[in-house]
Amino acid sequence: MTEQQIDLRDPRVLHRAAEHLTERYAGVFFPELVQRCLIDCHTDLARRARLQSYLMPMALHDAADRLRALAQDKGSRRERVCQVLFVEDHDTGPAAVAAALLATYAGIAVVTRSAGTTPGTTLDPAAVQVLAGLGVDPAAVAPKPLTDSLLAAADWVIVFGAPDVGPLESGTRCQHWPVDGAPGTDPGPGFVADLQSRVQALWLEITAGTATGPAAQLP
Known about the structure:
Elements: H1 11-24, H2 31-48, H3 55-74, E1 82-88, H4 94-106, E2 110-116, H5 125-133, H6 148-153, E3 156-160, E4 173-177, H7 189-208
Parallel strand pairs: 1-2, 1-3, 3-4
Helix pairs in contact: 1-2, 2-3, 4-7
Pfam family, one: Phosphatase-like_N
Protein name: Low molecular weight phosphatase family protein
Organism: Kocuria dechangensis
């Protein structure tokens, strides 16, 4: 994508451009603040720069400097936001929907993500429909690979089915949730309702701090 094609007013473009900084400061700053910082830096540079060819890398550099200074000045790293990671085999269905549901309930109080041990290429049609119903643009949601950094950052890891997520950080809470139906098929309203109930219960557990150990599991 050339500099002339970059339009940070497009949410999908902004999400991709700020993704690295968002991950770096996950739990320190909300994604919206990181994106706002990048927009401001890009706008400032566009006004002053004689050459417009390298605005984005320069804006990313300036945004990183601002965020680093802000984190140091406010001691933000001592005020971490709870992070929840939903994991399934391909990150094409329930995990993405659950992450969106929790974001709906928790707002900016929680950082939610989804990932797959062997990520697919596109979301399942049923997941697209549910996300659209939640007001989430499915085009802005794509299957993502499970990485060590995502696991290390997570306070909660919710595993759908039985994928091997590997060892977790000490103190990370883990729950295993069932997955009904074959991948790519419509699980039906019953599964969606059950998923909503589980996500609501998880949110209550997070806010109440009722879990007693790192491996608490739902039945």
